[in-house]
Amino acid sequence: MYVDIDQLKREFSKRLRIELRRKNMTQTELADLVDMSRAQINHYITGKRLPSYYNLSKIVAALGCSMDKFNCL
Predict the structure, then answer these.
(1) Residue 3 CA, distance from chain mean position
(2) Is residue 10 scored above 90 in pLDDT?
(3) What would you report as the CA-atom Rg of the chain, rounded to the nearest whole angstrom?
C-alpha cells in the first residue's frame, strides 16, 4: 500500500490549525506548553514535517483533544 507523505503532512497541518483555532491558541503558546520550539510547531502547521508519536501525544494533551482528531497519521 502506497502512503503519500505529502498528503499526510497537509492533512495533519489542516487538523492542527483547526484545533489551534478551536482553543484560540497561538503557535508560541502551544510550543511553550509542549516544550518545543515555535519553529518546530510552525513546521507541523505549514506541513513541512510530521511529529513523532511522542510529540503528537504532547500536542494532543496540550490541546485537550483525542488522538482521533489526528487519525490521518
Answers:
(1) 19
(2) yes
(3) 11
